Amino acid sequence: MAPFPVLFVCLGNICRSPLAEGIFRHMTTRNGRADAYPTDSAGTGGWHIGYPPDSRSVQVAREHGIDISQLRARRIEASDFDRFRLILAMDRSNLAHIQGIAPRETPATIGLFGSYALGTDADVPDPYYGGIGDFHEVYNMLFAGCSSIVEKLEADRASWSGNTSSVK
Fold first, then answer.
1. Strand locations in the chain (E)
2. Could you tell me which residues are beta bridge partners of residue 68?
């Protein structure tokens, strides 16, 4: 079966999206499915391109046995809409940005992380201007959501062989 690549997107790609990438990769690696669900993260802004994740994201991930320290921020690019089958924005502002730059005929499913993963229209709050407690809250939200995504993808795996419309 063909891989089903997943992209997580936030504003600067140093807090929420690399944390989601790390959690999702950890889960899929642990269950032997990393090759089935390659993952990456990106930002809609370019201020932090090439920088590692925020030290608080790194710390919170490390507390849960996940190493995201080697990740580097990048900006979402046109080729991502062909490379990824699922692109999830951390909040409505980033979702609007992604939808605004997406090619009209993109094969990717684009959605809000909260809607797709948690069944709610809640944004994943940006912890950047908060304290370590805010990063822990975001981790918990992302962990629950990534768990849901993995379950959803595994349940739909047999039906989406080549068909992106079945995983929405």
1. 6-10, 39-43, 86-89, 109-112
2. none
What's the pLDDT tens digit per position in 55-111?
A: 999 999 999 999 999 999 999 999 999 999 999 999 999 999 999 999 999 999 999
Catalytic residue among 54, 80, 91, 126: 126
The active-site residue, picked from 15, 16, 54, 74, is: 16
Count, residues in the chain: 168
Catalytic site residue from 10, 54, 56, 91? 10
For 145, the token pair is 């959501």
Residue whose C-alpha is closest to residue 146's, from 166, 120, 116: 116
- Known active-site residue 16: yes
Examine the residue annotation and report whether 10 is marked as an active-site residue of this protein: yes
The SS3 assignment for 147 reads helix
Residues 78/105, Cβ–Cβ less than 8 Å? no
Question: What distance in Å separates the CA atoms of residue 152 and residue 147, rounded to the nearest whole number?
Answer: 9
